[in-house]
Predict the structure.
Amino acid sequence: MTHVRLDEWIAGGERTRLGGHEIFYRQDGPADGRPVTLLHGFPTSSHDWAPILPDLIESGCRVTTLDFLGFGASDKPAGHDYRIVEQASIVEELWQHLGISSTALVAHDYGVSVAQELLRRDSARLTAAAFLNGGLYPDLHRPIRTQKLLYGPAGAVAQYLTTEPLYRKSLRELFGRPVSDADLHDMWRSTTMNGGKRIQHSLLRYIDDRRTHGESWVSALEQYPGPLLFVWGPADPVSGGHVLPRLRERLPHARLVVLDQSPATGHYPQVENPAAVASALTEFLR
């Protein structure tokens, strides 16, 4: 499955001022299509969704994507106190800007926490919610060595020492399936463009946010009355197979698609195994 490269992805979007910052976003698919909003993960960008976008459009979805503040082609202010609650407010402002009153929500990784905050605020506006690997339950989140280093006291210095080969190596630890060098290069560029290197330590404060808001976010997820789908890569060391028993126990009514066909999918299902993810999402969003 071919998809647009990062430069083409950015060229097809727009920027608007939200929460006092320039935020990159895209809208794709028929204007009268079923609204769905896709929320990306750390440390990359909305371009992660490019591999599954054609299938969503073909199935009749009106797809809204954005780069969170500090990510991709959006502003990356230095010295900023990046918080999940601010990212959720930016998403709400974007919906208001685009006239979106209700939408389905699909979230991955960092975006999972933003989605849980949006569920907590106003679950009624969300017609359905789908989650790909992410820290839904803070006690089950297992950050890799690189994340621990960047999050810790040495992170403010270590972030400047990261090179593309080191970045690729740390991301490959998360994958269960092969990902092309071209995809990894786009991920690196989306992370480091606009001075992105200097804010990685600050962005990782989301780990603190998950602890602070954990109870209310878990409650928002477990009490959400709408349709729920989990598309999960079990080979993910951070939020993989060890999360599945909790999901089955706490959310027995939810649909669970486990991408365990050999080789099993890891932390980035939409990049590693786009056909299976697109199939699960298009069926769910119908």
About this structure: The longest strand covers residues 21-28. The longest helix spans residues 206-222. The chain has a mean pLDDT of 96. The CA atoms of residues 121 and 220 lie 9 Å apart.
